[in-house]
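FIELD: query
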Amino acid sequence: MDYDKYVTVRGKQVDVHVNRAMEILDIPPADINRKLYDGYLRRSDKSWLGPSVSATQVIEDSIVGNAELDAILKDKIAALDAALGTNTVNGKVSTVSKSKRKRRKGRQGDELDIHQVYNGNLDKAWSESYRVTQDKKHSLVTLILDIGGNAFENVTDSLWQAAVAYKLVEDFTKAGKSTKIVIAMAGHDPFVGAREKVLTCSINAKNYNERITSSRLASMTHLGYFRTVMFSQMCLQNNRLCSSLGQSMDVASNLPLGISDEIDAGHTVPVIIQKSRSLNSAIDAIKSAYNSFN
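FIELD: result
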């Protein structure tokens, strides 16, 4: 494994970042964490993983989506639309000018070429159209879903957080902003014999100027995804993990290093999407997101 490509160590922070869930199947775990890694990818339990049922299905659904998860997410989006309207960004974020639309191929988009998937060309499997902005002051926005600290919580309830992300992407797009979605977690005391260290993990769910369907967003933000993909991701670094994986920390105060560096360089505006497990908490999360943006 090209260790430095995925793992960064800075002081007491050990950070693991991958660009897409499928990479988890291609990257060998650290030998010291192989047993845990294999266990996470063999897991098959609907009460723990949700409608995707198995770890393998969770990863496959992150590419093509899951109809059951999509239906649940759409119901929650509709509830937010009914409560807040369909343009919650209006008057809260300044807009920018837009120019023509272009089309390109990538790992996410509007149309899937299944032949590219079968040929292993996942980076060119989707095609999409996208806007090119003219405003030089156009802001990039990074939506950060803090998905940790969810023991014993219901998988479908966790999709309220995805509903918040979906609405924010829609509304920021209407304002001419380009958004990235990052799924993230942070934990302390995750390693045997190194209690002072912090482990952060992150995966891109959507890159700037990409579109994402509700089905794929649902498949990459529910707790079953965290309990397979991100648990396995923790095993890629070469410190021995505790069986408990440590204790959850607030991502806002312990950002993954790649996000932190991008913010420090002035390339993006971060928006933390707080935990949402009900309509009311989702509404609060949207309000909090706009307050943090401004």
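FIELD: remark
Confidence is low (pLDDT under 50) at residues 95-99, 133-137.
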